[in-house]
Write a structure and sequence with these properties.
This protein is an alpha+beta fold and about 325 residues long. It has ten helices and twelve strands. Helix 5 links the parallel strand 1 and strand 2. The radius of gyration is 22 Å and the shape is elongated. This is Endonuclease/exonuclease/phosphatase (EEP) superfamily protein YafD.
Length: about 325
């Protein structure tokens, strides 16, 4: 077999794999752990597909070029808009700053977290992998000076979580059965109440964890369920905000279904949807965007930013939202 034939075969095989991947992504199939991991790399695979298409054009493999470039164009339409801000209608209500931080089994530097809370004037902080030792670190770092109210479900290891708030809050279970403890609360904001959830489905890339991840994702509260459960016919239910480490990108069907129920992704809405959040510790792995703030679609997303925290593999995320006031409750 001559070199040209080998090259032609390799190009065709690579293009075939790209077509299979693209089809699975567009059909919304999350699959098992390997497919879930590969799906998170969709922006990188898209670049590979474009390169394959260009090579096919150069070597005059017209069918391969047409198929790969056409599929690449479709995937561009799904991925590239995340880098551009969407226009949003103005909402009358209260401005709220939401922060989320994965603490890497309690190893994160508490002072760094508190520094971001203070500098960004954060109103609500959701935490994942909150341990009892980390709670003590936060006490020493003075987190309660900025966020005195809290719902902490701290646990040794990586299953704990918590919410700290500038405003009074009451614990409320907002998820179905889940592998990790995902703290939920109702925050009494001036002008309205907001349901907030610290999200942390099980990472889907170890052992048989993919099915647990899917169950955890399915257990997250849908916005459309809030509308159905509302006691008042003229009400759309409580405002909900989900913030945390979803272990999912916007290319995973499970996360897109959640968004379709009535949420908007704060990073996507502000043109930061391709800004990676993990890994942030110098790992060789390609960085991906798995930490999110999902805001109720009745909220206005003003901006979004990421921040480095020492000794954790996740970047913290902060989003500034406008939450609409409840009827009959004027915003101060």
């Amino acid at each position: 077999m001559n070199r040209r034939r080998v090259g032609s075969w390799a190009l065709g095989a690579a293009a075939g794999l790209f077509v299979v991947f693209g089809g699975v992504r567009l059909l919304g199939i999350d699959g098992g752990q390997h497919l879930l991991a590969l799906t998170s790399l969709t922006p990188y695979v898209l670049i590979v597909g474009i390169v394959l298409g260009v090579i096919a054009l150069v070597v005059r493999k017209w069918v391969v070029a047409a198929v790969t470039l056409l599929l690449s164009a479709v995937l561009v339409g799904a991925v590239v808009p995340r880098a551009f801000a969407d226009g949003a209608e103005r909402v009358d209500g209260r401005e709220v700053r939401i922060m989320s931080a994965n603490l890497m089994v309690g190893k994160a530097v508490a002072e760094d977290v508190v520094r971001v809370v203070a500098s960004q004037d954060v109103d609500i902080l959701t935490m994942q992998e909150l341990t009892p030792a980390m709670v003590k670190d936060f006490e020493r770092a003075g987190l309660d000076r900025f966020l005195p109210y809290r719902v902490f479900l701290d646990e040794p290891g990586g299953s704990g979580s918590g919410i700290a708030s500038r405003h009074p809050l009451t614990r409320k279970d907002l998820t179905g059965p889940s592998t990790m403890r995902q703290a939920g609360a109702v925050v009494d904001l001036p002008g309205t109440d907001v349901e907030i959830l610290s999200v942390h489905p099980l990472p889907p890339v170890v052992g048989d964890s993919a099915e647990h991840w899917q169950r955890d994702m399915d257990g997250l509260p849908r916005r459309d369920s809030a509308r159905r459960d509302s006691a008042r016919r003229d009400s759309a239910g409580p405002i909900r905000i989900l913030a945390g480490d979803f272990n999912a990108t916007l290319d995973h069907a499970g996360l897109r279904r959640l968004l379709d129920s009535g949420y908007v992704d704060a990073a996507d809405r502000t043109g930061h949807g391709l800004t990676p959040t993990w890994p942030a510790d110098g790992s060789w792995l390609p960085p991906v965007t798995i930490d999110h703030v999902l805001a109720d679609d009745r909220c206005q997303v003003l901006d979004y930013a990421v921040f480095d925290i020492a000794d954790t593999d996740h970047r913290a995320i902060v989003s500034r939202l406008v939450v609409p006031s409840a009827p009959g409750r004027p915003t101060p």
